[in-house]
Amino acid sequence: MPKSGFSGSLSGPNVDVTIDMGNPFLNLTLDGFLKIGTIAATRAAAEDAYHIIRKGTVAGVYVGMQYGVDRIRGTRDWKNAMIGGALTGAVVSISSNNDKDKVLLNAITGGAIATAAEFINYLT
């Protein structure tokens, strides 16, 4: 009757796991499955972290722009959100190597979204 076993060790950055399924073919198949699964999970985590950081960067640029406009104008109102949103839309669009029309469109869109969010914030 086949017998299964499991053993593992951790030394430094290498993790060594041995699973004995009682058949060399099954052992290699399971070993390959575990290695590929670990690589896939690591890749998915890295891609998610990249997208989260990218979105956070845009939010950070907006907050910085709005704060800068607040300091320059010396007042806090919806116009700061509009200017900060427009500047953020333009900066993000320029960094994406878009043409002039796309930069202008993204600046207008950024200003409109930021202004709408500010007005909704005032309502609640």
Automatic annotation (TrEMBL):
Keywords: Membrane, Transmembrane, Transmembrane helix. It comes from the Eukaryota. Its main location: membrane. The keyword Membrane applies. It holds the Pfam family Tim17. One of its GO terms (molecular function) is amino acid transmembrane transporter activity. InterPro entries: Tim23-like. One of its GO terms (cellular component) is chloroplast outer membrane. GO terms for biological process: protein import into chloroplast stroma. It is found in: Membrane. It is a multi-pass membrane protein. PANTHER family: OUTER ENVELOPE PORE PROTEIN 16-1, CHLOROPLASTIC, TIM23. This is Mitochondrial inner membrane translocase subunit. It comes from Parasponia andersonii.
